[in-house]
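Dear support,

We are seeing what looks like truncated structure output for some complexes. This example has two components. We would appreciate it if you could run it in full and send us the complete token output so we can diff it against ours.
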Amino acid sequence: GQNIDQPTEMTATEGAIVQINCTYQTSGFNGLFWYQQHAGEAPTFLSYNVLDGLEEKGRFSSFLSRSKGYSYLLLKELQMKDSASYLCAVVDSNYQLIWGAGTKLIIKP
Amino acid sequence: GAVVSQHPSRVICKSGTSVKIECRSLDFQATTMFWYRQFPKKSLMLMATSNEGSKATYEQGVEKDKFLINHASLTLSTLTVTSAHPEDSSFYICSADTSDPYEQYFGPGTRLTVT
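Here is the complete output from our reference environment:
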């Protein structure tokens, strides 16, 4: 079967750095998305990785290793507004989205 | 975990025809269901929110007469794209949530191609 694993919840301190991991086993791979979702709102696109390596975009970076079936989202200089759920989703060989359950990130002062 | 399914997963239709997409919560009753549209490498765009037995609430700019939503039961919502045009070609994703505790589960999406 197809599976996406990410931690259920993480806690970090304002100003610190946090890494949210995502591991996947899917039938084929055509890219991986990271989304941020605040409660009651639609998910917001953060990144899309299809090649191995690190992509940096401001305070957020996303890393992909296709051979390991692994990605992480790195958030630097954490702000209180970064408290949200972070969703990992993989596009499989049929171009279907396989969603992780999301990681709830709690930022403390 | 909870599962949301969509059917069909992929559909190709001719311009001017209508297409119905089903969204089902398989092992739970959904308080609310949401329909999204995804453009390549972009955020999911919320189209509408629907509650069972009531009219859907459409986001600004979404034509309710073109994108018909029927939320017939606590486990089924349908999106019908009427008189489809090539610009309606997109990836449509539904999600369903539960109220206590609040969780939101996404479907695998339906890829619509209008020729």
